[in-house]
Structures are given as structure tokens and as C-alpha cells.
């Protein structure tokens, strides 16, 4: 039996390897949900698993692949899983990206993110972009379990911690939680952070120089052969999933010309 995690946004969990009836469905599992893989079934395209749901362990089966995507992934380090869990917790708290920032109670959740970086007068009903506060909040919460995350450059601007991660990579500072790399220097892994510019064209050199610029970051939570899923805040007025394409060599693709950095998780 092996610990694994759901690797797609939603996965039907069934009693038996049969898709013909809704009555055969036990539940719908969400991205990042932990499961125990028991082994193959009589049908090779299905996997027997056990899942804890509402405090009870339930046994059933899931498809091994859907539309060419592996539905389950191997566990990574506990530190990486801790950060991914915090990102997914926020995604779930915002109704898997369906809840909007200005509605109660979600605007209050945004306020919690701001307070975590010392901004006590802002919330989701304010016009101030809160995506950097969201990433800072997720990393800080992961720091409750893994101290090194507390060395993150918590900030209201992504460019601040992009710069810090590059500086820490250049000096090989092993106390840092992230090292910043150009996209072609490092392939993405679970728990890394992808960064891009917004509004005004900027690049890795701008981040390295410490220039403030409008930007955005997301935490990588799922990896497939030609893309990754990443979670961030203030995306479509919620905490949402963004899909980033990969190059044939497995690096984050600068498909729209605005992806500029991979912050590799070294916790």
C-alpha cells in the first residue's frame, strides 16, 4: 500500500470499476486529496484505493488515467506537501475558485491574508491586489510545520520575494526556502512557485536587480507531461488554479511572454 495524492481537479471514486451508473459513485475526490493505493483491479485501467472521508475509511476504485492524465501522483517531501496542502486548503476555502473575493465570508478570508503581513485595514472588498498576500499567507502557514518557510520574504509585492529568491540562489543560502532560477535552468516540481509580470513588461533581470513591478505568482500543485497546475490568489477574483504549459524538455514555457521565474522549493 502506497500513499498517493489526487493529481487532477476532480476524480470520481467508485465502488466498482464501472462508469455506467451514478449510483456506483462513492464520492468525488479533489485535487491534492491524499489516498492509499492498494493495488490494481481486475481491470488494468483501474486502481483500488482507500480514502478517509468524514472520519471513516472507505474503499473503492478510481481510473488510473483520464484523457491521458495520470489521476494519482507519488508523494514528495513532507515540506513540499505541507506547502501544497496550504495552497489547496485555500482553494477549497474559496469553493474551488467559485467564491468571489468581495462576498461574505470570503472578503474576510482575504483580510486574514493581509493581516498575516501586517496590513490590518485591507480585505477582499478593497481594490488592492491581494495575490502576493495570498502566497505569503500560504507559505507562512506551511512555516508552522517547517521552520525554514519562515525565512520567506513575506511581502505585498511578488517582485520582492522574486528578488530575494534570486539573491539567495546566487549566494547559495541554504537557510532560504526558495531559490530563484530562469525558466530554462530548472524544471518545475511540486511545491515550487512560478512567477510572471503583469501590466508592464518585465523580466528575470528586473527581478534580479530588485526593481518593483506588477507581477503574480502561483504555487505548483500538480505536474503532468506537458503542463502543470498551480494555485494562487486574486485569480478571477478568487483562489484559483492556473495551467502553465511546459516545453518539450519539461521546463515552464514562456507561452504568453510573461512567465519569468521558477522559485525552486529547497525546504
Question: What structural class do the secondary elements suggest?
Answer: alpha+beta
The fraction of residues assigned to DSSP E strands is 25-35%
The overall pLDDT, averaged over residues, is 96
List the strand order in the largest sheet: 10-15-11-12-13-14
- Main β-sheet: number of strands, strand sense, barrel status? 6 strands, antiparallel
Descriptive terms for the model:
267 residues, alpha+beta, SH3 type barrels, 6-stranded antiparallel sheet, 5-stranded antiparallel sheet, 5 helices, globular
Question: How would you explain this protein's 3D organization?
Answer:
It is a single chain. By secondary structure, this protein is of the alpha+beta class. It folds into two domains: 2-74, SH3 Domains (SH3 type barrels, Roll); 78-265. It is 21% helix and 33% strand. The chain has five helices and 15 strands. The chain has a six-stranded antiparallel sheet with strand order 10-15-11-12-13-14. Helix 1 crosses helix 3 (131-142) and helix 2 packs across helix 3 (131-142). The two termini are 27 Å apart.
Amino acid at each position: 500500500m502506497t500513499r498517493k495524492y489526487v493529481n487532477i481537479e476532480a476524480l470520481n471514486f467508485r465502488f466498482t470499476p464501472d462508469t455506467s451508473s451514478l449510483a456506483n459513485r462513492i464520492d468525488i475526490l479533489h485535487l491534492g486529496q491524499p489516498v492509499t493505493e492498494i493495488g490494481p483491479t481486475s481491470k488494468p485501467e483501474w486502481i483500488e484505493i482507500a480514502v478517509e472521508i468524514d472520519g471513516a475509511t472507505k474503499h473503492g476504485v478510481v481510473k488510473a488515467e483520464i484523457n491521458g492524465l495520470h489521476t494519482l501522483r507519488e508523494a514528495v517531501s513532507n515540506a513540499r506537501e505541507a506547502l501544497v496542502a496550504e495552497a489547496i486548503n485555500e482553494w477549497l476555502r474559496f469553493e474551488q475558485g467559485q467564491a468571489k473575493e468581495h462576498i461574505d465570508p470570503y472578503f474576510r478570508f482575504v483580510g486574514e491574508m493581509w493581516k498575516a503581513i501586517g496590513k490590518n485595514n485591507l480585505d477582499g472588498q478593497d481594490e488592492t491586489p491581494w495575490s502576493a498576500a495570498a502566497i505569503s499567507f500560504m507559505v507562512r502557514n506551511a512555516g508552522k510545520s517547517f521552520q525554514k518557510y519562515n525565512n520567506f520574504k513575506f511581502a505585498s509585492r511578488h517582485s520582492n520575494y522574486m528578488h530575494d529568491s534570486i539573491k539567495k540562489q546566487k549566494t547559495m543560502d541554504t537557510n532560504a526556502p526558495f531559490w530563484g532560477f530562469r525558466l530554462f535552468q530548472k524544471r518545475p516540481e511540486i511545491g515550487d512557485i512560478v512567477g510572471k509580470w503583469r501590466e508592464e513588461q518585465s523580466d528575470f533581470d528586473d527581478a534580479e536587480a530588485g526593481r518593483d513591478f506588477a507581477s503574480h505568482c502561483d504555487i505548483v500543485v500538480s505536474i503532468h507531461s506537458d503542463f502543470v497546475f498551480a494555485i494562487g490568489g486574486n485569480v478571477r477574483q478568487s483562489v484559483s488554479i492556473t495551467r502553465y504549459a511546459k516545453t518539450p524538455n519539461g521546463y515552464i514555457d514562456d507561452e504568453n511572454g510573461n512567465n519569468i521565474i521558477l522559485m525552486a522549493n529547497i525546504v
